[in-house]
Specification:
This protein has 278 residues and is mostly helical. It has 13 helices and no strands. 47% of the residues are buried.
Length: 278
């Protein structure tokens, strides 16, 4: 019983090392997109499994590479830095997950497998070396753009340009938003991606512009007339950023961060709505 409890504890710490919240969000959105574009139940499961393996790989490789930096700043959310799981275990898990991506994706065809592989390689390239360079948004943009391509290729079908472009812009915006809470700690440990060079305000503005760009593409890119729901979500996105900026003058305010999250959520909803036309 004690051995089983210990093993379960290690599994939970290992999963926590994979950045479960954003990884889970990507998997859920991918599966929902697969549903709305018309994939079969088997196809939806295959999409979810592929994206889960890809996200686990990128997350584990990130923590394997960042173990020393996370320990240096005392990150309480990093199991390796806390000594709860070994760096070797996380590295091996990342390798296994990465090797599983291509054969699972290949079940949907060659084009789908290529798109999934591009997304995986791009994601790992962010972990090293692009996270430290001005090109840090590019892996996010490429991996997010590859996501709808992977889903639609497996239908089989051809992803519309506006869906791929909007997903790429959404990924770029997500990068700037994701980095905001950790800019200070990242900078202390030598991470100098584009958001860190722009600073919190510049990153917030860059993320907002990219996310609004994704919103506009999703509303006006499809050939059909925009629905009232789409127009309403566009209005929400346009209003959210100025409101967040206004309340940013309050000490310790998280309004700007929440504002860009609202825009990102609107983009995800629009992506799913627009997926019915893919």
């Amino acid at each position: 019983m004690i051995a089983q409890t210990y093993a379960m504890s290690r599994v939970l710490w290992l999963l926590r090392s994979a950045h479960p919240e954003p990884a889970g969000a990507v998997v859920v959105v991918s599966a929902l997109l697969a549903v709305v574009v018309g994939r079969t139940p088997w196809g939806v499961a295959q999409v979810a499994a592929t994206m889960a393996a890809s996200q686990l790989c990128v997350g584990w490789v990130n923590d394997w590479l960042d173990a020393d930096r996370d320990a240096a700043v005392g990150r309480p959310d990093k199991p390796v830095a806390l000594g709860k799981i070994s760096r070797r275990a996380v590295g091996v898990a990342g390798l296994v997950a990465g090797l599983a991506v291509v054969p699972i994706a290949a079940l949907a065809g060659v084009r789908a497998a290529v798109a999934a592989t591009i997304g995986l390689v791009s994601g790992v390239s962010y972990d090293w070396p692009l996270k430290f360079t001005v090109a840090s948004p590019l892996p996010y943009m490429l991996s997010f753009a590859a996501l709808p391509a992977f889903v639609v290729f497996g239908k089989p079908g051809t992803p519309p340009w506006w869906m791929v472009l909007a997903a790429g812009l959404l990924g770029g915006g997500a990068h700037f938003v994701n980095v905001l809470p950790d800019i200070a700690d990242d900078t202390r440990t030598g991470v100098r991606g584009l958001p860190h060079r722009l600073g919190p305000t510049g990153s917030w503005l860059a993320g907002g512009v990219l996310l609004l760009g994704a919103t506009a593409v999703l509303v006006f890119g499809p050939a059909r007339t925009p629905s009232w729901v789409s127009i309403g979500l566009l209005a929400v996105a346009v209003v959210a950023l100025p409101v967040g900026w206004y309340f940013s003058r309050r000490p310790g305010s998280r309004a700007p961060f929440r504002a860009v999250l609202v825009v990102a959520l609107a983009d995800v909803v629009l992506l799913l709505i627009s997926g019915t036309g893919a």
